Amino acid sequence: MTGTFQSTPATGIKWKEEGNIQLPVVNGSGEDLVNGQEVIMKSDGTLDKRDAGTEFPIGVVAVGGKDGDRVTIHANFSAIIHASAKGAAHNPGAEVVPDGTLTEGRVNYIAATAGDFVSGLVLTDAASTGDAIRVGILPQAYKK
User: Fold this and answer.
1) CA-CA distance, 53 to 1, in Å (whole number)?
2) N or C terminus: fewer CB in 10 A for the chain?
3) For 5, phi and psi rounded to 5 degrees?
4) Residue among 91, 119, 125 at smallest CA distance from 107
5) Which domains are delineated in the chain?
């Protein structure tokens, strides 16, 4: 049957999932985090529960745990890359955009400002320009 799911060509994308990257991260919320709970990344690289609509969720808890324990989240990223910080220190959870340049073969990311289309969130701390960082690439950019 033409045009039905069954007739999809073998070269077509049949199924693709976004946000299925699992990350182990320390619970820094001061309380238990449970399966299904949305979480945000704090500037110290630990997780906290999302309790305000203005907070951008980094993912959903898959395997919960007590404060200080490592929990597993389903992260809202299509990829996680090694990159370089540029322009200033970057704390975990910071919204960033690429600036089109490279440092030691890594893409440079700068802090997003008002009007930028945010494409990633910093996952590791960077004290200064040129420091290596990990960036979670969002499946859909959003305007800051």
Assistant:
1) 45
2) N
3) -60, -35
4) 119
5) 21-75 (2.40.300.10), 79-143 (2.40.340)
